[in-house]
Amino acid sequence: MGRNESDCGKILLRTGFCLIFHQEKYTAKIENRTGASVDLRNIRETFSLLGCQGDNLVSCVDFDGCEIREKVKSLGKRRENPSKIDFFVCVLMGHGERKGGEDVFYGADGDPVAIERDIVRFFSSVNQCPWLSEVPKIFIIQACRGRVANEMKSFGSNRVASDGAFSRPHPAFTIQPAAEADIKNYCKFNSTISDFVSFRNVEEGSYMITCLCLELKCNSRQKSILEMLQDVMTAVSNHTGVQQPAIEFTIGNFTNMYWVESNPGKYH
Fold this sequence. Notes:
24% of the residues lie in helices and 24% in strands. By secondary structure, it is α/β, with parallel strands linked by helices. It has one domain: Rossmann fold, CATH 3.40.50. The strands form five sheets. The protein has a six-stranded mixed β-sheet, with helices on both faces. Strands 1-2-17 form a three-stranded mixed β-sheet, with no helix packed on it. A three-stranded antiparallel β-sheet has the order 6-7-8. Residues 153-157 and 163-179 have low confidence and may be disordered.
């Protein structure tokens, strides 16, 4: 594969596969995500720069729940790594909720897809998705994880939308290791902590996606992937005053992994 280590011990990730599930318009009685198209453009541009190009950059827009599950399973049918990718990224951007003790992501038809069970565990399973078994997998989730919220600071045009109702104060954040030992080699980066809402500017896009794309474009040469994600957590918290992203991972040597730009210098 294109992955290699430099004499400084960095693990360089040059070529990847990026799968995007982007929900903006809903056929169910769920509010449309005004401004979300900005996030899709930003994510596609960012991961194109980081080595996900051509057939390795896939956008699934306004899929119903069953279509999301079918797309995930169709990728699992591969039995080899045909493009010799170094990493896999799955981005979920849409309405979410905490139901039955697990995070769900709503299809356009209102069908809830279990993020952990139907997506993360599937792609992280050697039996169900063998071609990704040795590849670091990063899941980026821009969605609410509950209905708890706090009044936030102004940001951009100050036109803010979310899925939840305001109720109690926001707790302090922590970076927590992955709780499950049976799924390997993955990182899950959530836009907010469990039980809380995630905010979006209806003109400028989601706060976490905005901060993430800016960080990856500007600092991929200087910082490891983990360092950049940690800095995004701080940036989102500082910008909003209440929203705190969360990260968990089981990837070995994650502190030494770096993305390599396919078009270096464009944002430096």
